[in-house]
Amino acid sequence: MDSILVKGNGPLNGVIPIAGAKNACLALMPATLLSEEPLTLTNAPRLSDIRTMTQLLESLGVEVSALQDGKVITMSSHGLLNPVADYDIVRKMRASNLVLGPLLARLGHAVVSLPGGCAIGARPMDIHIDALTALGAEIELRDGNLHAKTQGGLKGAVHEMRFASVGATENFVMAATLAKGTSVLKNAAREPEIVDLIHCLRRMGAEIEGEGTSTITIQGVDRLNGATHPVVTDRIELGTYMLVPAITGGEIECLGGRINLVGAFCEKLDAAGISVTETERGLKVTRRNDRVKAVDVVTEPFPGFPTDLQAQMMALLCTADGTSVLEEKIFENRFMHAPELMRMGAKIEVQGGHATVTGVEKLRGARVMATDLRASVSLILAALAAEGETVVSRVYHLDRGYERVEEKLSACGAKIERIRSE
Ligand code: UD1
Q1: Is 23 annotated as contributing to ligand binding?
Q2: CATH topology of domain 3-19+233-419
Q3: Cα–Cα distance between 112 and 82 in angstroms, integer?
Q4: For the chain, what is the radius of gyration of the CA atoms?
């Protein structure tokens, strides 16, 4: 397993290009199952999660080809599709569950292994099941698999979700594009990745209104066509790199960034003493004083502060002047980075869904372990600001969601290198 070695060396300056969004791409790729014609995605990120989704689609009978080193992905589902998403692939990544809605809509049946619990929380599938059941699917759990079928195809329906789940919104919307009649989803999630999925489905001929609001209306059509679609900027990668000048000092411009992708996050940065300016090509970020100020953070569905930036924000607040409280409202066990940050001298107390962080003047390098995707990058941020050397082990978590991290940070002056294991 590879590790990453970081030597903290003060302010970082430069320009960082932000990739296409992993979470958008993971929803856009299964959309290919809805059409016999090819779907091409441009601006795709080059990540291990995308390779896992490629493997899953190939196992279902989709032809996938990648150009420009993986930045352009073309998928074709014209052949006979296999309706079974196997455990061996699904267990690697929860987003595998996004093939359920499209397979049901196209084939009328599907078997998708139940994604297991994962480190950050239980993450059940009940909201997905309720949403697809509302469209007329019959779903039962047998031998660890969800067996789903329809009698005579999916039918449009009005459905309100008990919680605005991102994945369940994506599954419902994709399934409803080929259902008979009109479907309305209430309490829908509003994340930019969902908006991006709907823009792509519309290019494929789907009739959908209300993206970005909590009510989405879908008029079912008989078939969808092929399309080419550019993946939206990754707001989580964006937010992560915006924290680099925040924690080390210096000035970094994140190419492709827009404030509307990270509005709630920018408000917290401003309160902490970080300036963000929108330029023609992205967002420029600088720290106003030597030290940031403490701020309280509560994670919420979009447009609130994203749970996927909570670990990275905690790394910043470990160095703040004062005490901050972070409340995690989306996942029940998402503070695993706290004990690792404490190995670097951070003062953090976790109680249930709250973490109280008392800022210290300096973090110190240490050997630490990545426990999940966003936790791993929070340790790298902390290491950039720490005195001495940090070795982050288990960086396969990082590779799921960040492409060429060492390259992007080295270009801004960071001392960071990957130690490859044999
Ligand atoms: C997506 C993102 C993930 C992000 C999360 C919340 C992708 C590929 N992943 O995950 O990075 O952290 O949104 O912004 O886009 N829940 C249920 N029952 C369900 C579904 C969800 O109880 O059927 C719960 C989950 O356990 C969790 C909460 O709802 O506590 C949010 O989950 P959801 O919005 O569905 O997240 P994902 O789509 O899995």
Answers
A1: yes
A2: UDP-n-acetylglucosamine1-carboxyvinyl-transferase; Chain (3.65.10)
A3: 11
A4: 21
Which one from 25, 118, 200, 266 is the annotated catalytic residue?
118
- Residue 348 annotated as binding site: no
Q: What is the average pLDDT across 19-45?
A: 98
CA dist 121 and 53 (Å) reads 22
Ligand 1 atom index nearest CA of 168: 35
Low-confidence winner among 117-126, 136-145, 226-235, 328-337 (lowest mean pLDDT): 117-126
Helices (H), 99-191: 100-107, 126-134, 166-176
What is the chain's mean pLDDT, rounded? 95
Q: One fold for both 3-19+233-419 and 22-230? A: yes
Q: What is the per-residue DSSP string for 169-238?
A: HHHHHHHHTTSBSEEEEES----HHHHHHHHHHHHTT-EEE-TTSSEEEEE--S-B--EEEEPPB-HHHH
Instruction: From the CA of 191, give the closest atom in ligand 1.
Output: 14
Spatial contact of 24 and 201, defined as CB atoms under 8 Å apart: no
97 contacts 128 by C-beta, under 8 angstroms: yes
CATH code given to domain 22-230: 3.65.10.10
118 is catalytic: yes
DSSP 8-state class, residue 95: G
- Whether omega before 303 lies within 30 degrees of 0, making that bond cis, reads yes
pLDDT at position 80? 74
- Kindly report, residue by residue over 52-99, the tens digit of the pLDDT: 999 999 999 999 999 988 899 999 999 878 999 989 999 889 999 999
Q: If you take atom 15 of ligand 1, which residue's CA is the nearest one?
A: 23
Atom 8 (ligand 1) nearest CA: 23
Distance (Å, whole) CA 326 – CA 347: 13
Give 168-219 pLDDT, tens digit per residue. 999 999 999 999 999 999 999 999 999 999 999 999 999 999 999 999 999 9
The confidence score (pLDDT) of residue 119 equals 62
- Each domain of the chain, given as residue ranges in start order, spans 3-19+233-419, 22-230
Which residue matches tokens 């109680």? 351
Q: Which of 29, 32, 34 is nearest to 50 (CA)?
A: 29
